[in-house]
Write a structure and sequence with these properties.
It is a single chain. This protein has helices at 4-10, 17-37, 51-54, 62-65, 68-82, 87-98, 102-118, 124-135, 137-149, 151-154, 160-178, 188-206, 211-232, 255-278, 282-293, 295-313, 322-355; strands at residues 39-42, 46-49. With 356 residues, it is mainly α. A hairpin with a 3-residue loop joins strand 1 and strand 2 (46-49). Helix 8 (124-135) packs antiparallel against helix 16.
């Protein structure tokens, strides 16, 4: 049971609860989205699959559950509010919050990879198919850490910096998707695409954004641009990667997903005050506070929890029918329990390390 009164009493009055609520929503969206679109088939070896490859009518769900831009928006806000001198001690403190969950995750997958290969008799390709989705969140951590390290310089950037980041993404898309430039050029967008919402978070923290006015403009403009690019620009309808597609909106990020992210940031600005008021309810705040406490562990380990559940119960199969979706929904409580147990173990390790 949550210690609602204890959490409420321990929360300082200066805590920005509305931003914490946005971070919790971002976590919930990414986790639920990954759990619903990640699937594995045995043909006879294990291969990665997705219901979106067979049921494209589900693509609109990705517009609800793809919340990565929220992470960068909130990350930019928090970093800008906390940046201070001297730089070495500040960045060391920030990275200590980001990096500790990585080593246990990598070690766990070394062990799990050996067990799957030796005990389950799976070839390296099958191990790779299981490991890639689970280790995929590490790319986010790398980009996020790089932007965090640059925050003392990014806080000097004006609104034009957001426009420049979006323009870079547009030019790179033009080069690789229209003019036939090498595909590697697209990886420039990994930095530029997520820089845009991160800069919006910094501008918000500095007071350079008016949530109602700017939020409405971002939501309307970004949303309209994303819809136009998908409808007439040839971009995929899904805002997540789909097995078998010629190209993805996420790997690397495209202009469509950047415009979608701007709309998402605008919606977050509009929702901030209502969420802030909602967080005055102690029970609601307790749930959000706990989610924020384990945010990085939840984000990094959630796909591993799904893989363990799939391995334990043999949840392989072609995700090509609505019944598959219903079955996956029925298994989500089990996956959530596995993730909760893993997060608890991670917390106990931290407590033990501090004690010793």
């Amino acid at each position: 049971m949550l210690d609602v009164r204890g959490i409420e009493a321990a929360t300082p009055a200066s805590r920005e609860r509305g931003v914490d609520a946005l971070r919790a929503l971002a976590i919930a969206g990414v986790v639920l989205g990954h759990w619903l679109v990640s699937a594995w088939e045995r043909t006879p070896h294990v291969v990665i699959s997705s219901p979106l490859a067979y049921l494209p009518e589900l693509s609109p769900l990705s517009w609800v559950l793809q919340t990565l831009a929220l992470f960068f928006l909130v990350g930019g806000y928090a970093a800008a509010r906390g940046v201070r001198e001297p730089y070495p001690s500040w960045i060391a403190g920030r990275l200590r919050r980001l990096l500790p969950p990585v080593v246990p995750l990598l070690l766990a997958w070394v062990v799990l990879g050996v067990l799957v290969s030796v005990l389950n008799g799976q070839p390296p390709g099958s191990v790779r198919a299981l490991a890639l989705p689970a280790l995929g969140p590490l790319w986010f951590l790398g980009v996020f850490a790089a932007l965090t390290a640059l925050t003392p310089w990014l806080v000097r950037v004006r609104r034009s910096g957001v426009v420049a980041a979006v323009a870079v993404v547009a030019v790179v898309d033009l080069l690789r998707l229209v003019l036939g430039a090498p595909g590697g050029v697209g990886w420039v967008n990994v930095g530029a695409a997520w820089l845009a919402p991160y800069l919006l978070g910094i501008l918000w923290a500095r007071g350079d954004l008016r949530p109602r006015r700017d939020g409405a403009w971002l939501l309307a403009g970004g949303g309209a641009a994303a819809v136009a690019l998908v409808t007439w620009g040839g971009y995929p309808a899904s805002m997540t990667g789909v097995t078998g597609q010629s190209f993805s909106n996420l790997s690397p990020p495209t202009l469509a997903v950047v415009c979608f992210g701007l709309a998402q940031a605008g919606l977050a600005l509009l929702l901030h005050e209502p969420l802030k008021r909602l967080m005055r309810r102690p029970r609601v705040w307790a749930v959000v506070a706990v989610a924020n406490l384990g945010a990085m562990s939840i984000f990094l380990w959630h796909q591993t929890a799904l893989v363990l559940t799939v391995l334990a119960f043999g949840l392989y199969g072609r995700p090509d029918t609505p019944s598959w979706v219903l079955e996956r929904l029925a298994w989500l409580p089990v996956v959530a329990l596995v993730l909760a147990f893993m997060t608890w173990c991670r917390h106990q390790l931290d407590v033990g390390r501090r004690f010793w």
